[in-house]
C-alpha cells in the first residue's frame, strides 16, 4: 500500500465519531430544502409544460442512483452464505421496513413538501422520536427515566402546537374536531411510518448485516413506490424520468445526500456511544430550519417559533435523561445496532 493511501487511512481513523455524526446531520437536515430547490429548478426548465424534476421523479430516480451506489459499497455482503442465514421471518421484517421507510415515508414526506413549508415538515417529523420511545416502552418493555419521558411528552406537545396553530389553508382535513393542513398531516403520517419501521428493526432485524438491510430497503422501496405510482397516476407520470437534467442532479443528490450522508452516519455510529449520537441527533431540527432559511430563504412563522421552541425544550429534557442514564453506567453503552438509531435524525432524503 502506498504511503499517501496509508496517510489518508490514518487521518480518517483519527477523525472523531462526533465529527462524522455532525456532518451526517447537516447533510440530512439539508435534504428537504435541497429537494424543494430541485423541484423549483425543474419548474424553471419545463419539458412540454411538465416539470422533469417533480417530487415523484426525484424519489424514484434518487432511489435508483442510491441503489447503484450502495451496491458498489456493500456488494460483498450480498453473498450466498449471508443470504442463507436469513429466515423467512427476517425477509418478512425486511419487507415491512422497506415498504414503511423506503416507500411510504419518503412518498408522504415528498408530498408534504409540495403542500407545506419545509419548516413544518422538519418540526412535525420530530413526532417520530416520542412515538418510538412510547412503542419501545409498551411493546419491548424498555426502561427509561423520567427525564426522557418528560422530554418525549414535551416534544409531542410542540409538534401538536406546530400543526394546530398554523394559519387556515384551503387544503385541510378534519382530525378529532381540529382542522389540520393536508401537508402537515402527510408529514406526521410519514414520521409515524418511520417510527414503526424502527420498532420492527429493533424486534426482528438486529442481526441482519447492515449492507443487506440498506440495499434491500432501497430496492424494494423503489419498486413498491413505482408500482403504486403507476397504478394511481399511470405510466405517463414518469414520462420525464430519463431527462438528462433530472439525472445529472439526481446522481449528485444520491451520491451526497443518500450515500455520503449514510456513510458518515454509520461511520460515526461505530465510533460513538449512545449519548453522543443522541446529542448530535438533537441538533437535527435546528439544522433543518437553518437549511430552509439559507437555501430557500424560508423564515419560521409564529406557529413554528412556538412549536419549535417547545420541541427544543423537550429535546433538552431528553438529553438530561440520556446523560443521567450514561452517568449511572460505568461505561457509556455502545449502540447495539446501527439500524436502531435511524430515529435520531428522522428523514434522510430517500
Keywords:
350 residues, mainly alpha, 2 strands
What does this structure look like?
There is one protein chain. The protein is mainly alpha-helical and 350 residues long. The chain has one domain (16-344). It is 72% helix and 2% strand. It has 14 helices and two strands, in the order ααααααααββαααααα. It has helices at 3-14, 17-43, 55-74, 80-84, 88-115, 118-124, 128-140, 146-164, 182-204, 210-233, 244-270, 274-281, 284-296, 302-327, and strands spanning 172-175, 178-181. The protein has a two-stranded antiparallel sheet with strand order 1-2. Strand 1 and strand 2 form a beta hairpin. Helix 5 crosses helix 10. The longest helix has 28 residues, at 88-115. It is globular. The model is unreliable at 4-9 and 330-336 (pLDDT under 50).
What is shown here, in short?
With 350 residues, the protein is mainly α.
Mean pLDDT: 81
The fraction of residues assigned to DSSP E strands is under 5%
Quick one: biggest sheet? 2 strands, antiparallel
Which stretches are poorly predicted, pLDDT < 50 over at least 5 residues? 4-9, 330-336
Give the N-to-C terminal Cα separation.
Answer: 36 Å
What form results from the Cα inertia axes?
globular
Q: Could you give the count of β-strands? A: 2
Order of helices and strands: HHHHHHHHEEHHHHHH
Give the C-alpha Rg: 20 Å
Derived from helix and strand composition plus strand pairing, the structural class reads mainly alpha
Domains, number: 1
Helix content: over 70%
Strand order of the largest sheet: 1-2
Amino acid at each position: 500500500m502506498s504511503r499517501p493511501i496509508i496517510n489518508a487511512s490514518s487521518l480518517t481513523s483519527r477523525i472523531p465519531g462526533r465529527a462524522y455524526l455532525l456532518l451526517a446531520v447537516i447533510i440530512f437536515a439539508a435534504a428537504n430544502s435541497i429537494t424543494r430547490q430541485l423541484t423549483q429548478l425543474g419548474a424553471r426548465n419545463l419539458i412540454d409544460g411538465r416539470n422533469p424534476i417533480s417530487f415523484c421523479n426525484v424519489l424514484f430516480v434518487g432511489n435508483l442512483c442510491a441503489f447503484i451506489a450502495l451496491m458498489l459499497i456493500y456488494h460483498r455482503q450480498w453473498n450466498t452464505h449471508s443470504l442463507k442465514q436469513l429466515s423467512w421471518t427476517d425477509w418478512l421484517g425486511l419487507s415491512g421496513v422497506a415498504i414503511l421507510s423506503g416507500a411510504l415515508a419518503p412518498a408522504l414526506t415528498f408530498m408534504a413538501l409540495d403542500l407545506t413549508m419545509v419548516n413544518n415538515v422538519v418540526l412535525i417529523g420530530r413526532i417520530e422520536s416520542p412515538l418510538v420511545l412510547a412503542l419501545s416502552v409498551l411493546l419491548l418493555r424498555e426502561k427509561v427515566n423520567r427525564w426522557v419521558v418528560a422530554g418525549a411528552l414535551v416534544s409531542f406537545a410542540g409538534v401538536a402546537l406546530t400543526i394546530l396553530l398554523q394559519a387556515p389553508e384551503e387544503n385541510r382535513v378534519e382530525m378529532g374536531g381540529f382542522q389540520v393542513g393536508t401537508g402537515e398531516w402527510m408529514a406526521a403520517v410519514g414520521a409515524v411510518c418511520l417510527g414503526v419501521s424502527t420498532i420492527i428493526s429493533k424486534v426482528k432485524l438486529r442481526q441482519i448485516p447492515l449492507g443487506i438491510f440498506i440495499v434491500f430497503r432501497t430496492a424494494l422501496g423503489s419498486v413498491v413506490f413505482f408500482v403504486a405510482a403507476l397504478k394511481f397516476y399511470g405510466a405517463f407520470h414518469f414520462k420525464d424520468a430519463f431527462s438528462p437534467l433530472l439525472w445529472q442532479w439526481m446522481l449528485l443528490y444520491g451520491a451526497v445526500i443518500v450515500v455520503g450522508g449514510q456513510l458518515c452516519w454509520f461511520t460515526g455510529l461505530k465510533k460513538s456511544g449512545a449519548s453522543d449520537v443522541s446529542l448530535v441527533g438533537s441538533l437535527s431540527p435546528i439544522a433543518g430550519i437553518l437549511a430552509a432559511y439559507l437555501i430557500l430563504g424560508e423564515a419560521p412563522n409564529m406557529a413554528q417559533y412556538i412549536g419549535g421552541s417547545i420541541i427544543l425544550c423537550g429535546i433538552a429534557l431528553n438529553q438530561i435523561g440520556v446523560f443521567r442514564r450514561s452517568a449511572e453506567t460505568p461505561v457509556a453503552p455502545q449502540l447495539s445496532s446501527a439500524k436502531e438509531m435511524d430515529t435520531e435524525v428522522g428523514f434522510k432524503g430517500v
